[in-house]
Write a structure and sequence with these properties.
The protein is built from 12 helices and 7 strands. By secondary structure, it is α/β, with parallel strands linked by helices. Helix 6 crosses helix 8. The longest helix is centred in the middle third of the chain and has 20 residues.
Length: 320
Amino acid sequence: MALPGAPTLSEDLRTRLATELAGRGPEYEPRTRNLRADGSPLYTNRLLLESSPYLQQHAHNPVNWRPWGDEAFAAAERLGRPVLVSIGYSTCHWCHVMEEESFDDPNTARFLNQHFVTIKVDRETRPDVDAIYMSAIQALGQRGGWPLNVWLTPDRKPFYAGTYFPPQPGPGRPDFMSVLHSIQKQYSDNPEEILRFSADLTERIRADLEGTATDVSRIPGADVMRLAADRYARVADPTWGGVGQQTKFPSRLPIRFLLRYQRRTGDSRALDMATLALDKMAAGGIYDHVGGGFHRYSTEVRWLVPHFEKMLYDNAQLSL
């Protein structure tokens, strides 16, 4: 079935998708709620042809997803539409929540397909793209995270960004369809203003990524390290370890820095902060006592209730 609100795919692309789908065999289970009576998917988009496991997970959304590349931005230029780039990864909880609530919904997909060019990005295969647009959301004064949804002009310059958008408005979070309608209207009614804003934002991102002294090599001195240690002493939780009172990420307390600082200076505070955090993490639910390794973060102050996903790079940074 054609993707709702989207132009008919070319005959060549339809043939390639059909051949790829048939090759999956009878044991293949499409990851979508939009199914025919025989269990086959109602919708299939270009992501079925991609190698990324995360992109494959979105291959049967009714959204007319494209992979990152020149073809998608050429289509946006030709159609005069803004681009939605949605970035995530295969074990991202809220990425899948938003997929089920919005990207797998035919009505939401119809509006996206009629007014935007949509691109899905796996941050684990394109960390370069993720880094650029994570800088964009932070430059807009928002907290970064995934899913990372960024709206761009056809020349790849961002003008709006957010993370998870629910299907219904909630405290501090507008619903996704309201965001889409607002962006579409602004882009249609005030294109020059959006182009000016996106150009200014792009320059801020470029300056942030390049730094202000790219040709100068600087080694932090003892004063800088002392200031860093003092800062963590002020913000660290003296009872449960780590940093934070609502959610706690292990990476917010730089364990290796504290251990090296204590060895260099003999400052017992640094060792106490590091060992307290490690002891509480090892005794809490953020540590997988069955499978080993640490979950991404704790959802409360005592490290007891984890957000159930484990990332290789998080665990690698915790290895001492």
